[in-house]
Amino acid sequence: MQFDVAFALSTVPTILGAIGMTLLVAASSCVGASAIGFGFELIRRSGGWGGLLVGFVIDFIRATPVLVWLYCLYFILPFYGIRLGALATGMIGLSLYYSGYLAEVFKAGIDAIPNGQAEAAKALGLGRMDMTIFVIAPQMLRNIAAPMGNYFVSILKATPYLAVLAVPEMLGRAFDIASDTYRYAEPLTVAGLIFLGLALLISQAIKRLEIRLLGPTAR
Amino acid sequence: MTQTDDKPAVQIASLNKWYGAFHVLKEVNLTIPSGSRVVICGPSGSGKSTLIRCLNGLEAYQQGTVTLGTIELGANARETVLARRQTGMVFQSFNLFPHLTVLSNCTLALRRVLRMPRNEAESLARHFLEKVRIPEQATKYPAQLSGGQQQRVAIARALCMNPRLMLFDEPTSALDPEMVKEVLDVMTGLAHEGMTMICVTHEMGFAREVADQVVFMDQGSIVEQASPVAFFSTPNHPRARSFLNTLLH
Ligand SMILES: Nc1ncnc2c1ncn2[C@@H]1O[C@H](COP(=O)(O)OP(=O)(O)OP(=O)(O)O)[C@@H](O)[C@H]1O
Ligand SMILES: [Mg+2]
């Protein structure tokens, strides 16, 4: 079967029609994973039993395939009376899964901040919360812009997993076309290229951000 | 903090601290009257930093009491926070916040801790930047300043909180020689205004000119405490004598 460029182009509007869903899932999972991961890392750093427990949870998450999380949330939670829609399940699943990885990134970013920063904040009388928000978090972000961006790209690339929950994202659309027309190469190529474009855009944005963050404020 | 002038600014009584099995502060007793300037010196590892870090809660201790004005640290959580807030600290490595401008470094605690409106905080910050003689650097970032300028910003940042007590831990040790003077000048100015100051420093010229007490520490104890004149002319303790000799040569 020959690659039919005209047919490929004709699939673009349908597949692109789902880009909104892909971006919605990716963006909300990035936000969710960052928030949960940062919370995890703060608890882990505070030590004690909570810290140990969260440390275990982070390792557990990172040792499990993402599909296990999605299936568990989707098929097992309803047995306990918790019913989430497919979309919500997908976003929560990706957020939880990547929160484990982002917690590790945040850890590296915080570890790299000299002790003196927290000491100066304490000496000025800043509380824990203010210190975290105004002193630690901004410097952490500056330290980890690149690896964090890589995980955001990973989250984007993980959105097709939501096909197992029948969330209508781009790869799912491409597959629908393929099974209707028995032509796989064209729609899958188109979907792949769109993902590639999005990933490049994110990396570029992160690079810009990094340059800005590192500008005159570098140590 | 309700502080009356007859109460000493700092009273350290029978302070003992251990790092694990290592006895880092041994029975330290020290009374610092309001308005006085104390220079702490001693060999590396003698516990100078540990001692002054105990005065603002950066280090915990196992025995003894530290009283700032009328507030005993650790006795009452709310008062302890207040006492710390009124204690400024300047570090050897400046510890300015690199992601904030000079002005924001100075206003952060004013705004977050004292809930001061932005305008008021900024004009106060500018006042203290002028006092340390770098008003023109307000919009720069720390990395764009020289070491001496950064340390002066750190002093201004601490002064913004209107401290009753200023702690300095080797404020000039990380500076190139030509920048030491600009920082010492600012500190001398503060001393002349009556600020209560505790300085860990090996700048003996500064100690001679500004201090009213010199405290010499060795192996976690205060082994000599004297006026600068007495300390420099006739140090009693043999270790103080040998320490002064190494400084002079
Ligand atoms: N967190 C810590 N854990 C264990 N030991 C420590 C710790 N901090 C300091 N020490 C030890 O306590 C002793 C006193 O340290 P401190 O920093 O107070 O000395 P110092 O007089 O300020 O020395 P320097 O002139 O080198 O700054 C040193 O022997 C040091 O190794
Ligand atoms: Mg020291």
Describe what you observe in this structure.
Chain A is mainly α. Chain A has one domain: Orthogonal Bundle (MetI-like fold), CATH 1.10.3720. Chain A contains 9 helices and no strands. In chain A, helix 2 packs antiparallel against helix 7 (128-158) and helix 6 (115-123) packs across helix 7. The longest helix of chain A has 31 residues, at 128-158. Chain B is α/β, with parallel strands linked by helices. Helices cover 38% and strands 24% of the residues of chain B. The longest helix of chain B is centred in the C-terminal third of the chain and has 16 residues, at 177-192. The mean pLDDT of chain B is 93. Chain B has helices at residues 48-54, 77-85, 102-112, 118-131, 147-160, 177-192, 204-210, 228-233, 238-248, and strands spanning 10-19, 22-32, 37-41, 63-68, 71-72, 87-90, 165-169, 196-200, 213-218, 221-226. Chain B has a 6-stranded mixed sheet, sandwiched between helices. Chain B has a 4-stranded antiparallel sheet with strand order 2-1-4-5, covered by helices on one side. Chain A binds chain B through residues 114, 116-117, 119-127, 130, 134-135, 138-139, 142, 213, 216-219, and chain B through 56-58, 81, 84-85, 87-89, 91, 93, 95-100, 108-109, 112-113, 140-144, 154, 157-158, 161. The structure holds adenosine-5'-triphosphate (ATP) and magnesium ion (MG). Magnesium ion binds next to helix 1 of chain B.
Q: How is this structure best summarized?
A:
Chain B: This is ABC-type polar amino acid transport system ATPase subunit. By secondary structure, chain A is mainly α.
